Amino acid sequence: MRVGIGFDAHRFDAASAPLRLGGVVVDPARGLAATSDGDVVVHAVVDAVLGAAALGDLGTHFPSSDERWKGADSLQLLRNAVDSAAAVGFRPASVDVTVVAQSVMIGHHRSEMRTALARALGIDVDDVSVKATTTDGMGSIGNDEGIAAMAVATLVSA
Question: May I ask the CATH architecture of the domain 2-157?
Answer without folding.
Answer: 2-Layer Sandwich (3.30)
